# Entry
Amino acid sequence: MSKEIKVASSGEASKSLEDRPVGSYDEYSKKFMADSDAVGYHQSHSLGSFKDLLKPSRVLGWVVAKAEEVAVRRLLRSCKGEIVLDVPCGTGKIMTALARRGHQVVGLDTSAKMLAQIAGSEKELTELLVADIRRIPLRDSSVDVVLCNRFLHRIDPSDHRRALNEIRRVGKQYAILYFAVKGVFANCVFRLERTLDLGNRGLTFYLTRNEIRDELETLGWTLVRATSVIPFLSTGYVVLASPVTTWKYIQRY
# Structure
């Protein structure tokens, strides 16, 4: 890897944060601490054998995961960032694809068990950190783009500020953020899941597209571009956002 990733001390990264639980975030962050949970999550979006092709949930999970990767890469081309922080990176389903395409990728997750699911050859292409998104152990403006996929929709929107402020601190230019949108597409996805008996998706917070834009503007971001993952198959909505100061500068010139 060509560029140095500057690591801050734990005190420097968290000096403005309170050491207290934030509700649903703590519940979700502890969900994948066990080996069985991490393995189950990794398998839910991968096809490891022919038998997996006979399982609708596995096939659908794989299709959606690939669509998320395509959506992220499409938005990433708009900002041309070389150094990407993927937080939380989980088992590396997107970060390893980005690393294979030449990006310098740093993966961060609270669960060491999730990071352990990343294959050995893929680990050589990335840097991995066990840390909290609310206390990212990197210096200010040390990465070009921060990817936050499949996380914000799992925590109460009232807790988004802490995560987005930390993302803003370590990122230079842009953030790629995943939300879950409500509306007719969400209803279609729910019906499909019931039909295929895909189980409970867990605690999810849905926002409208206007609510997402309003929240980002309130927290000092501008929504630059956005794309749905797969209409009727996923409620995922991936946005490219920029801190307001950066976006105003681009518009000016």
About this structure: Residues 226 and 239 are 4 Å apart (CA to CA). Residues 56-79 form the longest helix (24 residues). The radius of gyration is 18 Å.
